[in-house]
Design a protein that fits this description.
Layout: E1 7-9, H1 11-19, H2 21-29, H3 38-55, H4 62-72, H5 81-101, E2 110-121, E3 125-136, E4 142-148, H6 156-161, H7 163-175, E5 181-187, E6 192-196, H8 200-219, H9 229-233, H10 250-254
Parallel strand pairs: 1-3, 4-5
Antiparallel strand pairs: 2-3, 3-4, 5-6
Helix pairs in contact: 1-2, 1-7, 3-4, 3-5, 4-5
The chain binds iron/sulfur cluster.
Iron/sulfur cluster binds next to helix 2 and helix 9.
Length: about 260
C-alpha cells in the first residue's frame, strides 16, 4: 500500500512551526535530531511512573513507586551529576505527594486512556499525539489530562491556551462525538489541576486555529527563521542556521546533518 503523503500535525510540530519556521524546517523537513534535554528526561520519567501507578492492578506503595522511578532514571541532558541528583530528589517528592493525595481506588474515576498514541484523519491532514490520560467520570464526561512536570502553579487560562490540549481535544471529540469533554493541565510539582470546558464557539475557534496552521505549513516555502536572541541561543540548530549565518546556503548546510 502506498504511504500516505498527508501532512501530520502534532502539538510539538504546531508549536515548533509557530515558534520558528526555520526550526520546523530543520526538524521536520530535513530531519535533524534535537539534543537530549534535562526537562524532557525528567518529564518522561515522571510520566512512566504515573503510568505504572495507574496501570497497576493493585495500587503500589509510595516506596515501590519511588524505587521504580530510580531504576528507570537516566541523566540524559543534565549538565552535571549534581543537577541530575537534585532532579531525582525533586521527582521523589513529587511522587510522594501524588501518591499521598490520590483519591482511594474506589473513589477514583475510570481511566479510559493512558499514555496513548492517537492518530485521527481529519481529511486534509492527520492529527496525532500521545495523550497522557483520559478519565471517564460517572456522568460520562471525558477529562483529558496533560501532566506538566516543570510548573509550580497552573491557571485555567494556561489550560485554555495549551496547544497540546487543543489537539488532544480535537482528536478525542472526533473519536467520542457523543461525550462531553473537559481538558486539564495537572501540574505535578504542586499536584494541582486546572480544568476547563470549552463552549461550542470556543471549540470552533480551536478547530479554525488548527486548520489555519495546517494550511500555513502546507503553503510555506521560505522557512524564514525568527532570529530572536533568546530563542536562537537555546536552539539546537543554531550552528547550522542560515538565518543566523547570512550568506550560507540552507540546502548546502542541510548536508551537514548533525543527527
Ligand atoms: S537559530 Fe534561531 S532562526 Fe535559526 S532555527 Fe533556531 S530559532 Fe530559528
Amino acid at each position: 500500500m502506498a504511504k500516505s503523503t498527508k501532512l501530520t500535525l502534532s502539538p510539538t510540530k504546531i508549536s515548533a512551526f509557530l515558534r520558528c519556521r526555520r526550526f520546523y524546517w530543520f526538524r521536520y523537513i530535513q530531519k535533524y535530531q534535537t539534543r537530549p534535554r534535562a526537562e524532557f528526561t525528567f518529564g518522561a520519567a515522571l510520566h512512566r511512573s504515573l503510568d505504572a501507578f495507574h496501570g497497576a492492578t493493585e495500587r503500589p506503595t509510595v516506596e515501590t513507586l519511588q524505587a521504580q522511578f530510580r531504576e528507570g532514571w537516566t541523566t540524559a541532558g543534565f549538565k552535571t551529576p549534581e543537577e541530575a541528583q537534585r532532579a531525582l530528589e525533586a521527582a521523589q517528592g513529587i511522587l510522594e505527594k501524588y501518591h499521598q493525595e490520590a483519591p482511594p481506588p474506589e473513589a477514583a474515576p475510570e481511566i479510559l486512556l493512558r499514555e496513548k498514541m492517537l492518530r485521527v484523519d481529519c481529511g486534509e491532514y492527520v492529527l496525532m499525539g500521545r495523550v497522557d490520560r483520559v478519565d471517564r467520570h460517572p456522568d460520562g464526561t471525558l477529562e483529558i489530562i496533560d501532566y506538566k512536570s516543570g510548573r509550580s502553579r497552573v491557571t485555567e487560562s494556561q489550560t485554555r491556551a495549551d496547544i497540546g490540549l487543543m489537539v488532544y481535544e480535537a482528536m478525542i471529540r472526533r473519536l467520542y462525538p457523543d461525550s462531553r469533554v473537559t481538558v486539564s493541565i495537572h501540574a505535578l510539582r504542586p499536584n494541582q489541576r486546572a480544568t476547563i470546558a470549552r463552549t461550542d464557539g470556543e471549540f470552533a475557534e480551536v478547530l479554525t486555529f488548527i486548520d489555519d496552521t495546517a494550511h500555513a505549513i502546507a503553503a510555506e516555502t521560505d522557512w524564514e527563521g525568527v532570529c530572536d536572541k533568546d530563542l536562537c541561543e537555546d536552539c539546537d540548530f543554531l550552528l547550522w542556521c542560515p538565518d543566523r549565518w547570512p550568506g550560507r546556503d540552507a540546502d548546502q548546510m542541510s548536508n551537514d546533518n548533525p543527527s
